[in-house]
Fold this protein.
Amino acid sequence: MIHHVMGVDGTYPLLLTLWLLPLLGGVLCWAFGPQLKTAAGWLASGALLASFVLTIVAWPTATQNLNGAVGAHQALVSWMPGFDFGLLFDPLSLIWTCIITGVGFLIHLYSIGYMHGDRAFARFFAFLNFFVFAMLTLVLSDNFAGLLIGWGLVGLASYFLIGFWFEKPSAVAAARKAFVINVVGDIAIMMAIFIMIAKVGSVGYGDVFSHVAAFGPTLFAVCVCLFIGAAAKSAQLPLHTWLPDAMEGPTPVSALIHAATMVTAGVYLIARCAPLWNASPDAQLLVGTVGGLTALVGAILGTAQWDIKRILAYSTMSQIGYMIMGVGVGAYEGGVAHFFTHAFFKAQLFLGSGIVIHALANEQDVRRMGGLRKKLPFAFFAMLIGVLAICGLPGLSGSFSKDAVIQGALEHGHPWLYVVGVVTAGITAYYMFRMLFLTFTGAHRGEIDPSHLGMRHPELVGTPHGDSHSEHHHAPAWLMNVPVAILIVPTIAAGWLLFGGGASWWATFFATTFAPETLPAAPISEMATTGIVLLIVALGFLVAYLRYGRMGDAKAAAEKLRMETVHAFPALTNAFYFDAALDALFVRPAAWLGALSAQILDPHIIDGAVREIVHLARSLGNGVRAVQSGLLRAYVLLVVGGAVVFIAYYTLIGVHR
Amino acid sequence: MIANPTTQVDWNGIAPIITIAVTALVVPFADLFARTHAKRWVAILIGGLGTLLAAGLCAQQYGSTGTVFGGAFALGGFTVVFEEIVLLALFGSLLLFATTMQERRVGGSVALMLWSACGALLMAGASNLMTVFLGIELLSLALYCLCGMNDRPASRESALKYLVLSSTASGFMLLGMALLFGASGSVALSSLTLGGLATSSFLWSGSALFFVGLAFKMSLAPFHAWSPDVYEGAPMPVTAFMSVATKAATLAVLARFLYAALPTGMSSAFLLPIWILAGLSMLVGNLGMLAQTDLKRLLAYSGVAQAGYLLVALAGTTALGLRYAIYYLVAYAIMNLGAFSVAAALSDEKEAGSALSAYHALASRRPYLAAMMSLFLLALAGLPPTAGFLGKILLLSTGVATGYWWLAVLLILGTAISLFAYAKIIRAMYARPDGKAQPELPVAPWPAMISIALYGIALVVMTFYPLTPSNIVPFVR
Amino acid sequence: MDLTVLPVALGDYIGLSLVIFFIGVAGIALRRNPLIVLMSIELMWNAANLLFITFARVYMNNAGHIFAFLVITVAAAEAAIGLAIVVVVFRNAKNVDVDDVRILRG
C-alpha cells in the first residue's frame, strides 16, 4: 500500500514548539508550584501566549498547497507499518489551534484573577496547561491513534479539572460521571480504529481517507462508532448528561473546556472525517438528525434552569448540536464556522457569568440575582454582546455562522432540520434573554446587600478561599476584565469572515479541505433565512421580555419566580428524564449485575471455575513432570515413539499423495 | 550435481566463523600463561573481543548475496541476522562466566563455548545437508563437554543424557538426510525444489526424520525430554548459551528448509505435524513450568513453550511471518539472557541463584535485580511494556492471518497457564522477608550489572521499534 | 537415477540400512550398559552411511561418499567425548548402568 500523507512533508520546528510549549509549562507549574506561587499563572499564560504567537507565525505553512497536499506534515515516530505518528497542520487544525491557544490564553489570564488565592493555584494551571497540550495533540495528530491519545488525555484533564475542588462531593461525582461517559466514547472510537486496521491496515488520516472504498458496508459502522465517540465528548443526545454536571468545576474551566474547546472535539472529528461521511449518506442523516435534536432539546431544557452556569451549559449543548448538525449534513464550513464564533461568544458569556458569580460570592442562582446592571456594568455589557451574538443579531458573529448551518441543512436536502434550526433559534433567544433579564434587570432579590457589591475587604486579600470564596465579594480585578474585553472584539467581528457565502474568506480558506460541492439552489435564499431567523428571534425576545423584563420590585419578583418554580413542568426540571433513563437502563442493571456477581457468580461459579482450572492445570503439569522420570532410556523411548509417529504419518500421507 | 573443482574458496564469506575459531584456539593458550587469579577475566576478555570482532565482520556481509564453498554456505541478510543472534547469545553467556564456574575451568569452558558457537554460526548459513550436519554436530559436541564442566554429579549426568539423546536424534536426522539425498541426488538444499519432488516418498520420509532431528534440537514436545534435565544440570552460562544459540541456529535451518528447499506445490499436510508439535510444545512447556523449584529447569520448560510460539510465526510460511519470528527470537534471546544474567549475578561457583528459593524477598535485598528480573519474567510471559508482548501480538496476528487460528488459541491458552508460574516468582521476590537468616548474596561485577540494564532497556525500546530487516526473505536458493 | 549400477535391488540396500538402524535404536532404548549404548549410536549413524553410499552410487555423485566420511569423522569425535563422559559419570560407581543416573528429573 502506498503511504498517503496529508500535508506537505517536512520539518516544522515552529509546529513542534507550539505543540510542546503547553506541556513544558504544565510540567514546570506542576514541579515547581510551591516555588512559583502566583508566577505559575503567568508562566502558564506565557506558554500559551507564545504558543498562540507561534500559531500565527506558522499560519502560512498550514495554508500552503503543494500539488494538492495542503498544510504541513511533520513526521515523528514510525512504529509499525500503518502506525506512523506525526503532526498535521492544515486549515482545519489551524482554526482549532488558534482557538485553543488564543481563547485558551485569555482564559488563563482570566484565571489568574479568578483563582487568586486558591490553595492549589499552581496545580490548577498545571492541569490547564496539560489540557491545552492534550487538546493540541488531538487536533494536530495526523492519525486516528494519535487522535485517540489526545481524546483520552483531554478526558483525563477534564476529569481533573471538573473535580478540581475535590472536597465537594458533587464535584467528584460530576467528574466521575463525565469520565465514565467519555470512556464510552473512547471505546467506540477504538472500535472504529480496529475496523480501520482490519480494512485499510493503517490508522493514518491520509491512508484511511484515500481507501474509503475499502470499508465497503462497514463504513456505516465506522461512522457510527466515531459518532458515538463524538457524541460522548460533545454532549450529544443521549450522552449529554455529564455536561450540565460538569459545571461543578471552576468557571474558567467551564469556559475553556466545556464551552470553547474540548466539547467541540466531536465537531472536529466529524469535520476531519468528512471523506468518510461524504461516502455514507446514512451516517450523514444520523448525525444531522441527532445534532438537530440535541440543539432543540438543549434549548428547551435551557428554558427551565435557574443556575446561571447550567443555563449556559444547556446553551452550549444546544449550540454544539447546531455544529454537529452542520458538519453532519455536509455543511462543514458552516459547522466549523459556528465552532469558531461560538468559542468567542460562549467564552465571553461564561467569563462574564464568572465575574457575576465571583462578585456575588459564588451565588449561581439567577432567582437570587437581579438588578446587577448598575453594580456590574462591564459584566452586563459583555454578556449583552454575548447574548446578542448567540441569538444571531445580524452583524454579530453568531448570526453568520448559525444562519450558515441552518441554510446548509436546507441546501443539503434536510428541510425539517432547517425548521428545527429556526425554531431552536427562537427558543435560544428566549432563554438567553431570560437569563439576562433575571440577572441584570429589575430589583436585586438576593440575601446579599447589593450595597456591598463592588467592595472588597482588604484584610481578605490573598487568603485561601477555595470554592467558597469565603464571605467576601469583590469587584473583578482588571485581570478578569481584560480578557473579556478582548473577547468582545471577535464576538462582534468574527462573523464578517463569513460574509458573502460561497465567496467569503472563510469558504476560500476551507476550499482545499472540504472540496466544496455544487448544490442545487435552496428554495429559500440566504437573505430570506436571515429574515426568518430574525423574526423568530424577535418573538423569543418578546416573550422573554414580557415574562421577565418587567417584574416589579424585589418581593413581587421573588414571589413570581417562586410560583414559577413550583409550577414548572416536571419533565423540564428533570431534564426530560435523561438521567433517570440512563440510570434505569444502565446504572441500575449494572449495579444489579454487580450484586448478583458478588453474591452468586463470583464465589460459586467463577471462583469455582478458576479453582477447577487451576487444579486441572496443576494436575496436567504433574502429568508432564511424571513423564520426566529422569530415566535416560525412557527419554529415548519418547524420542523414538515420537519419531515413529512422525514417520508413520509421513509415509502414509506421502504414499497417498 | 558435482561440485566444481575450480570453485573459488571465499574465506571472506566465513570470516566470522574463522574469527571465532581462531579466538577459540587463542583462549586456551592465554589461559595457560595467565596468572592464577587473572584466568577468569583473561578468558572472558579475549572471548568477548573475538565475539565483537566477529559481529563486526558479520555485519559487513549484510548486503552480500550468493553462496561460498560450492554452495555449502549461503551469504546474505538471513544468515547475518541469525549469526548476530548467535553472537549475541555467545557474548551474553561469556559474561556469565564472571561469577559462575570455577576459575580453573573458565578458560576451557570459554574455548569450548566458542567452538560451539562456530557450529551455530555454520548452521545459520548452512545451505547443504553436509554443512547442516557439521554445524549441528560441532555445536552439540562442544556442548556435551560444556554440560559436564562442573564437578557436581548433576552436571555430569546432564552431559551423559544430552550426549546419548542428542546422538540418537542425530541418528534419525542423518537417516533422514540420507533419504533426502536419495530423493534429489544432491546434498544441496535447493536441489529439492527441482524436478517435481513434491510427491517423492524419499522426500516425505526423509523430511519426517529430518524434522525429528530439528524438533529435538529445538526441544519441541515430545522431543523435549532432554532439555529440563540438561538445562538444570549444565553450568549456568552453558544453559544460557544453549537456550538461545541452539534454538536460533536450529530455527535458521528449519526456516531455510521450509522457505527455500521445499518443492512448489507441497500440500499443507506436509507441514501439519510441525504445527502440531508447536501446539503441543506450548501446552507441555507451560504446564511443565507450574511446579518447578529450579530456575534453570523452569526456563527449560519455558524454552519448550517459546519454541512453540516461534513456530506459530512460520505457520503458513509467509515472508512477514519469518520477520515476526526473527523479531520474537531476538526478544526471546534478550529476555532469556537477562533472566540468566540476574541468576548469575546472584550466584557464585555453587550457582545459588539457580534455586527459586533464592528469590524469596529479593526486592528488599537487591531491589535493582528484583525489578529487572520481574521485567524479564514479564517479557517471557508476554506482558507489556516489553518486546515479549509485542512479539506475541505479532505471532498471534500471523497465526490468525494465515488461518492457523487454533495455534493462536493455543498460544493464548499457553500464555495464560504460564502466568501462574511467572507471577509466582515475581510475587515471591516482592514478599516480605520471613525473618529467616538468608545466605549472604554475592556482589556481581559491574559489567554484569550493566549488561542486565542493557537487556532491560533493549526489551522496552524494542517495543517501540518493531523493525525487522525486510530483505531477509529473498535469501539464497 | 541409474539403478542398473547396483548389483542388488535398491530396496534391499534400504531394507538392510533400516534393519541396522533399528537394531541401533533398540540397543539404545533397551540396553543399560552405557558402552553398548554408545556402540548402538554408532550403528544408527552407520546405517545412514550405508544409505549415503548407496545413493552416491545410484546418482554417481561423490557427495554421498564425502558425507559418509564426514559422518565417520564426527562419529569418532563423538565416541571419544562419549567415552570420556561415561568414564567421568561412572568413575565412582560400582555398576555401570544408565538407569542409576537419575538425579535430574521432574
Q: What stands out?
A: The mean pLDDT of chain B is 89. The first helix of chain B runs from residue 15 to 33. The interface with chain A takes residues 160-161, 164-165, 168-169, 172, 198-199, 201, 203-205, 207-209, 211-212, 215-216, 222-223, 225-226, 228-229, 267, 269-270, 273, 283-284, 287-291, 301, 417, 420, 464-466 of chain B (CB under 8 Å). The two ends of chain B are 15 Å apart (CA to CA).
